[in-house]
Specification:
Rossmann fold, disordered N terminus, 17% strand, 11 helices, amino-acid biosynthesis, 4-stranded mixed sheet, globular, 353 residues, Four Helix Bundle (Hemerythrin (Met), subunit A)
Length: 353
Amino acid sequence: MNPSTYQVYPVVWENDRVILIDQNRLPGKYSIVEISRCEDMVEAIKTMIVRGAPAIGVAAAYGIYLGAREIKTKERKAFLAELEIVAQQLRQTRPTAVNLFWAIMRMLKNAYETIGTVEEIKASLLETAQQIQLEDLQTCQSIGDRGLEVLPTTPDKLCLLTHCNAGALATAGYGTALGVVRSAWRDGRLARLYADETRPRLQGARLTTWECVEEGIPVTLITDSMAAHCMKQGLIDAVVVGADRIAANGDTANKIGTYSVALIAQAHQIPFFVAAPISTIDFQLSTGEEIPIEERHPSEIYQIGETVICPPKVEFYNPAFDVTPAELITAIITEKGALAPSELSQLNIKQSV
């Protein structure tokens, strides 16, 4: 659990409890939260102690196990009925991030398919949660390496731009978009990362830059409104962002402001990449119009810290995500390789076979 290295793991199973890095306190303070009850995991996800679609999925998987551990009945049917209630509590925490629902579904499937006593089901659930965590870490490393195959080839090292945090803190470790950045840095192809601050919660400023500084990756923080200027000045070779949910046609929901960056990148003929695991693709949704967009409390935009920044009686609109249309996306980088949005159906066919 040493924060001085890039090997940061935001969700860890240790001594019969879950250890979370409290991402609301970074970068000012590196602190952890110990979770041993499902209701505490629900609150941690809601309040963004843990955030980032893949990390939420891992946390939810452990949340299912913690909830299962609290169920007293030894009768299988009654146990599964109570486990469904636990699952519903976790589903209601964050509506946009599809990895949450994917992980819950996988955990429930395991519970129903495990033959044996209730105690044996509980043991299997813990093993499944740990497997989800391990798989995500391996997936992110693959995404990072696959990203190298599609990044632009330039005479000089690359300067990349990212929006929000899709790094180790948002996953089981290593990251998706920041995984591509890490792999480029490791291979000597990266000169610098430009990080949007990402209003209103400032994940780019607080989290992405923290990860980069800890690892020694050159990073320049810019405000969200500076992206167009930086592209016009020739400072950006490519954009790499993460995703919270991708529709079957490639429309992608990510942190609010991502759509703006994609439009600016298109205007300057700069490639715009989305890096995400296949589990982030929701093949049940035809287009991004069907993706539910979470709206968060207005306090996130009417104050910074304890300081209120607007007059009383102002009305507020605070969507946490926007949807970038597929036609603005150069490629979606997955653990299986980079695909044009129109090619995502190939993955669905392979999964169905």
